[in-house]
Structure formats: structure tokens, C-alpha cells
Amino acid sequence: MALLEVRDVTVRYGGLVAVNAVSVQVHSGEIVGLIGPNGAGKTSLFEAICGFVVPESGRVELDGTDISAWPAHRRSRAGLGRTFQRLELFGHMTVLDNLVVAAEAKLLESGLAADVVGIHRADKEALALAEDLLDRLGLSRLGGRLAGELPAGLGRLVEIGRALCTRPRLLLLDEPTAGLDETETKDLARMLRKVVDSRGPAILLVEHDVAFVSELAGRVYVMEFGALIAEGTPDEIRRDPKVIEAYLGVEETRKHATPA
Amino acid sequence: MSQLSSLLLLTLVVGSVYAMAATGLVLTYRTSRVFNFAHGAVGMFSAYVFRQFWVVWHIPLPVAVFLVVGVVAPAAGVVMERLLFRPLRSAATVVKVVATVGLLVALQGLVTLIWGKAGMFIPPLVAVRSFRVTSNLAIGSDQLLILAVAVGTILGLGLLLSRTRFGLEIRSVVDRPDLAELSGVRSGRVSAVAWGIGFATAALAGVLLSPMIGLDSYTLTLLVIQGYAAAIIGRLVSLPMTFVGGLLVALLEQSATLYLPPACGPCRAIRPSIPFLLIFVVLALAAAMPKGRLGAWVAIATRDETAAPPPRPRQRERRRVAPVALVAFGLVALMGPLVSARWLLSLEGALALTGVFASISVLTGLSGQISLGHTAFVGTGAFVMGALAGHPGFPFPLALVLAGLAAVPVGLLVALPAIRLQGLFLALLTFGFGLVATSLFGSSLGHATSGVTVARPSFASSDLSYFYVLLVIAALLLLVASNLERSPSGRILASIRDSEKAARSIGLNLARYKLAAFTLSAFMAGIAGAALGAFQTVVTYNDFNIFYSLIWLSVAVIGGVGSVWGAAIAGLVWLAGSVGAGSSGQIFFGLGALLLARNQQGALGALRDALGFFSRLSELPRVAVRGFSAREAPEISGEVTGGPP
Asked: How far is B483 from chain A (nearest CA, A)?
């Protein structure tokens, strides 16, 4: 059984059909890519999976459980971790606190009354998890910095660390390479590979950067105009005439057209 | 029949003035993204100035009107936009609300200082002659004048917006300020002019309405709510629909005056809340059907376009807080027996309000939500305390806790819509709620002037012994807020304030935490209210007038809502204001909030920033020399000089 099963999801904004009956699967231990030109509906599908956008029809299942009607925070608790295309950090909190709060959100059940009278709950586990992840992301040095002051590349890593702190079973990344330079992109790819290989979550990547996806993903879905037009290994995708026409071709011509 | 037709006539006259005020309000809001809570207060202040010119100094009517509406008000609008509101454009909604609320508070204080508390009378603008319209309906020349001026102004603004180059610039700034800038529109100038026009419409509304409704510092201030209700029906876009909205508000108000039985207290209490109820119904309908056409329609009117997170100071080291707090507690405790009786009373009042400030700190500081209706919570606590403490032998601490608990359902009532609404709309909603609560307190008490007796505990009936009771209560409430601030829950609230999206993505149920913050804040405010009531020993409904919410919020901001310390400092500010400035303290409170809205650390934070600036300034020569001799220029030089060397 697939870890994530998306069946015939349709997202509509007014008259515009952003996602048209798309089905996608992600299995445990897999890295899956979702690519497509601007406006193809990738992000809408992504948001529908995370519960930030309500689809018009279709089902989203996690481990066989229908989570279509669940709000976003409940999906997160069930094991869907995510990042954002435009950084959404807790900017006025330290990098470490960004991760700690995520770990605590999952670990601690409501304890407002205890907090108010000053009985401090054991949050050592959360702190340990957060520090461990900072270490693995190579961010330990920055733990005390304010998240809002970081450059975009590091901010993205913090977001990934924060998502990992919720101990997801599936990590959804929305354009993780946006705003990163070449070295940072390579580092990110290496880090994500490590995460998955160390029995971490499966990953669903929404990306623009085809090279990045080809390097990481075992399987790739291609969307255009809200519909799925191809699915396969990166190699198969690259050879698919429909994909070349719809996406790669356009991208290539655009690259050539742009003066250096 | 003649009753109905005169009702319709009044509706037309008053409604057109509302619509005109609404047009100005919307113009400023849409061009500058700052909702001016003081819109009505500007009208109120202008009406007083106009009365001074016309009635007291005998300046001829046209000149007086021109001076107020054409010179003073627009100039004030332009200057305020430039100095105070333009820098707030991209600030968090809470900051903008606090700034304009500060202006409202200051204007009210200023009016009380100059012209006193008593209401005033302005004669009709023109000699009243009746024109018979039908056999049983006559229109007065004054009404005709008001109608003509208001409708003419709306038409003029409509033409300005739709037909002129400047109108085009305004519309471009409203849609996309960034693109407008690129195509050569100076959005700053546009917003300055919009504020000038906005202030002028408020002033004109004040001048036109005050001969009809009299002049006091409260009634006209609420014009902002009436205007907003009209504007929301026009979706903040359509002038004709805004006009309809203004008529609707006026119609409901006039019908309430005419048809509600005068003997029924709660019914009369409804009247001032009508515009708010209208806003609430529209918002509730929209929230109930977010996908429907009505939902989409209202969404345009309620969309908060700048959703910047509320500012939050750097996290400072949190050690060594306890010793400082203990020393402060000890010092205040020692002051009790040493100060004079008059000072002791001021000190007690400040201590009781420190608890209120702590509750505001939890809500506005920690969770980034805003309440302009805190008087509802505080008042509930005080009145419940009055009922409980009346029973001899009822344990005081238990009564205190019950008074706090009684405020919780009131808090929940406000908090439920707060889950859906943010920033500006939450502020409006809480303001309206506080308004209703004030009216309900008044009507349910019946005897507004005599008030309710709140007994002090038998062990602390003297002023000095009750001073210690208040000190302990204030300390406990501060401790609660401080515990929360430093706990995992505090961290979670901080994260929600920074980014709601990200908070949802890590599995936080926002509704639950927002409810929790409101509940706790209401509980604390209820306890503080109970303590305040027993300090005063007699409370009237006017002690919990909605405008106190605004004053308290202003003082909390001056103290600094960014940390729990700020609540304690706000207590000091209140003490200083009440001892040093007496009733005109309100002016300083308002101005303070206006100036410090951006600074979550309050007055001390601003002072620290200023000192930091001067110390950097004093380093400037050294830095410059160093930067000149060595090539590596320290970061600081760029920050201070801000230009090329």
C-alpha cells in the first residue's frame, strides 16, 4: 500500500480549474518529483495534499486512512511535514526555537494550565531532537540567531529542519531550490538524500529545477495545465515527447533565447 | 403616517452624512492601508473647533466652515499622514490599530481638557425655514443644506476618483502601490492627499451632525463605526452602495429610537450598537459561507491586505528576572505605609490596573491578537465581585477566582469569531462588543448613577491593608503572564504570531490556542476588575465605558506589550499619568501610544534605542577615523551615516 495516495483530486478557483482529476502515489522510502511549467497546478496540488487548499473533489489517503476532510494541523500530526515556497519562518524566534516549537507541538499535549502556574513540562526530548537536527543540517552554529535574519538558503534549511522535527512520514517540499545558488542546491540534494537513506520520511518534491529533481527523485510526475501528462523515471521523462514539448523544450528554448 | 415620513427624511439626512464620512474613511484606508479608528474623533474634534470659531469667536459661518473643513482638518491629515501613518504602511495591523486608537484617545483627552466634559450645543447652521413637500411632510432648510452638502461631497469625490488624473493615481495606488510607483505615481503624495480629504470629510461630518445630535466627546467618536458599517456594505469600493449603506445604518438607528419602547432598558441599550451589529451580521454571514457569492462579496471588503506579523522584540536573556522582580515587589510594599493617603489611593489604582495590563500583555503581546473591548471582561469581574462580596462571610479569594471565571464565557464569546477574523476585523469586533457590553451593564444596572457596592474583604477593609491585597493580586497576575511567556505554550503562541501558516504546518491547532489566549486574558482581566471594584468600593457602569479599553490599551503599549515587564511599567505610567497630569493624562497616554505603536518594548525600549543611537553617534568620529585609516569599515559607520563617505 502506498504511503500517500492521491486520487482524482480537482482544485478549482472560481472558474479556473487549477488541478484536474490528478492521481499521485508516494511509497515509503521514496523520493518523488512533481514538475511542470509555471501555472501547471503543482503548488495547488501540493497545498491540497497538505490541507491548505480545499479540493473540489477527490481523495487524499495517508497509509490507507482517508484524510481528505482533515484540517492542515491534523494532517501534520498524522505525519505530513511541509515547507513553503515563500519562506514562512518564525522570524522573531531563534533558529533553535523554530525547531524546538515544532518538536514540542508534536510531543506535548495541551498543558496551558501547567504552564501558567509555572510547572515546567519536560521539554528535554524536544530540545534534544531539535539540537540533533540542527547538527545534522550543519546549522548548530546558527542556533542562537534570529530566523528572520538568515539568508534565504539557510532559511530554507531551517524550514526543512523544522518540518523534520515533527517527525513526518512524508516530507513535502515546495520548490526547495528557489533562491539557492549552485553550491547550496548541491548541498541540499546531498542532505535530502541522507535524510531519506537514514530511514527518514519519504519525500515529495515540487520543483522547477529539472536537474535537481532528476538527480534526487526515483520517480517523476509531470503536470501541465492542471493535468498529469507523464509519469516515470527521470530518464523516461526526459525522453517523453509530450514532456519535451510541454516543458523541457520550452525551458530549453527559453534558456537559449536569454542572452548570457 | 407623518411619523414614518419624518423618519425617512431623518434617515436620508443623517445617512447621507454617514455615507460621506464613510467615503473619506475608505479613501484613507485603501490608499494608505491604515484604518483610521480616530476618523470619528477627528470629526468630533473638528466640530468643537468649529463651534469655537463660529459660536464663541463669531467668525462668519462660511469662513468658519472653510477654516475647519478646508484648512485645519486637511492640513492635520496631511501632516499626520506624513509623520505618523506613512511609515506604518507595511506594519502589522495591531500596530496600525494601536496608533490610530492612540490618536482617538489623545483627541478625546484634548477636548476634555479644553472644553470640559459637559456636552455642548450648536445652533442650526442656517435659520430654520420649513418647506412643505407634501401635505404632511415638511423639510427644514437646515436639513436640506446638510443633505445637499453631503450628497454634493460624495458626488464630487466620485467624480474626482473616476474622472480625473489624480483619481486614476489614487486607484492605481489602491490596486498595486508598487506598480504605481514604477509608472511614476508618487504613492506617498497620493496617500497624503487622501488623508487630507479623509480628515476633511470627517470634519465636515462633525460640523453637519453636531447641530442635530449635540456635541460631546463620545457620540461623534463612534462615527467611525457608523462609517465603517456603511463602507462595508459598499465593499469599501462602491460609492453608490456606500450611500445605501449609510442610509441603512441611519434607518436602523432612527427606527430603534422611534419604535423601541422607551421603558425597555436593554432595547435602548441596543441603539448605539446598531452599526456594529450590522457589521457583525455581515461578517458572520460571510464567515458562514466563505464560498458563496455573499462570502466573496464580503471577502473583498474584509480582506486584510498587509498581513505582516506583529513585531516582537529580540529574545533577551531571561535570567536574573526573579531577583529584580522581588526587589521591585519589596520596594512597592515598603512605599505603602510611607506615602500620603492621596498617593496611596493612586498607587492602589495603578496596582489594580497593572493586572489589567498583564491581561492585555498576554493577549496582545504574547498571542498578537487585539482587544478593544477589555472593559467587558474587567466590568464583568467587578460586577460579579459586587454580587458575591455582598454576602457576609463569602471568602474573598474564592470570590476573586469566581469573578475571573465569570469573565471567561464573555471572553469566549469574543474569541469564537476571533478564530476567523484577524487584525482589523478583530479590533472592530471587540470594539463593538465592548460597546454592547457597556450598554448592557448600564441598562441591567438600571440606576446608572448610584452604582453597585463592592465590599472589601473583612481582613483588609482599610486602604493600607487593601493596598497589600492589591499588590499580591497584581504580582500574581504578572507572575502568570511571565510563566506563560517562558513556557512551551508561550513559545507556541509566539510562533503562531509570527506565521500562522507555518504554525499549522507543524500541527498546531490555531483555534485552540487563540481561544486559550482569549480565555486566559479574560480570566485575568476579570480578577483585576474584581480587585479594582473592591478598591473603588462602588462601581458604576460608566467605570467600564468602552473608551477606557482604548485608554488602557494605550497605556499598555506605552509600558510595552512585548514583554511582561511592560505590564508592570504600564502600571507606573498610569501612576505617573494619574498623579502628574490628572484628567489630562489621557492626552499623554494617547500620544504615547501613537508614537510608540511600533515599539513593542514601549517607552523604555524607545529610550534604549535612543540612547543606543546617541552612543553610536558619539562613536561616529572614532569610527570614521578608523574607517578612514584602516580599510575595513566597521558595520556601524554605514548604519549611522547612511550615505557614501
From this structure: 5
Is some CB atom of chain A closer than 8 A to the CB atom of B75? no
Is the Cβ–Cβ distance between A193 and A216 less than 8 Å? Answer: yes
Mind listing the pLDDT tens digit for each residue in B335-383?
A: 888 888 888 999 999 999 999 999 999 998 888 888 899 999 999 999 9
How far does CA B516 lie from the centroid of its chain?
23
DSSP code at position A94:
B
Tell if the CB–CB gap between A88 and B489 is shorter than 8 Å.
Answer: no
- Give residue B296's Cα distance to chain centre: 28
Cβ–Cβ under 8 Å, residues B32 and B195: yes
CB contact under 8 A, A106 and B506: yes
Give the gap in angstroms from C-alpha B325 to the nearest C-alpha of chain A. 16
On the 0-12 / 13-18 / 19+ scale of CB atoms within 10 A, B82 is: middle
Q: Is the pTM of this model over 0.90?
A: no
Q: Helices A124-137 and A95-107 sit at what angle, rounded to 10 degrees?
A: 130
Cell of B517: 489566549
Say if residues B335 and B118 touch (Cβ distance below 8 Å): no
CA distance B628 to chain A (A): 29
* Phi and psi, residue B355, nearest 5°: -60, -40
CB–CB contact B506 A117 (8 Å)? no
**Is B501 close to A52, i.e. CB distance below 8 A?**
yes
Pairing outcome for strands A65-66 and A57-62:
antiparallel
Q: Which helix (H) or strand (E) holds A204?
A: strand A202-207
Tell me which residue has cell 504613492: B187
Q: Is the CB of A117 inside 8 Å of chain B's CB atoms?
A: yes
- Among A50, A90, A116, the residue with its CB nearest the CB of B499 is A90
Asked if the C-beta of B621 comes within 8 angstroms of chain A's C-beta atoms, the answer is: no
Give residue-wise pLDDT tens across range B401-451: 999 999 999 999 888 877 777 677 788 888 888 888 877 777 766 545 567
The grid cell for B172 is 492605481
Interchain contact B505–A (C-beta under 8 A): yes
Q: Give me the pLDDT at residue B628, please.
A: 43
A72 touches chain B (CB under 8 A): yes
**Triad A207, A213, A216: Cα angle to 5°:** 135
> What is the rounded distance in angstroms from the CA atom of residue B303 to the CA atom of residue B305?
6
Task: Of A77-91, A105-119, A156-170, give the lowest mean pLDDT range.
Answer: A105-119
DSSP, res B164 = S
Q: Quote the CA–CA distance of A204 and A208 in Å, as a whole number.
A: 13
Query: Which tens digit of pLDDT belongs to each residue from A8-52?
Result: 999 998 788 999 999 999 999 999 999 988 888 999 999 999 999
Report whether pLDDT(A253) > 60: no
Chain B residues in contact with A161 by the CB 8 A cut-off are none
Mean pLDDT of chain A: 87
The answer to whether A50 contacts chain B (CB < 8 Å) is yes
Q: How far is A47 from chain B (nearest CA, A)?
A: 11
Q: What is the ipTM of this complex?
A: 0.90
Residue B337 or residue B200, greater confidence: B200
Contact B101, B554 (CB under 8 A): yes
| Subunit contact B494:A77, Cβ cutoff 8 A | no
Residues A101, B487: C-beta atoms closer than 8 Å: no
> Starting at the edge strand that comes first in sequence, how are the strands of the sheet with A65-66 ordered?
A16-26, A4-13, A57-62, A65-66
B316 in contact with A, Cβ within 8 Å: no
Q: Mutate one of A83, A86, A90, A97 to test the B interface: name it (highest B CB count within 10 A).
A: A90
Cβ count within 10 A of residue B591: 18
pLDDT, residue B299, reads 55
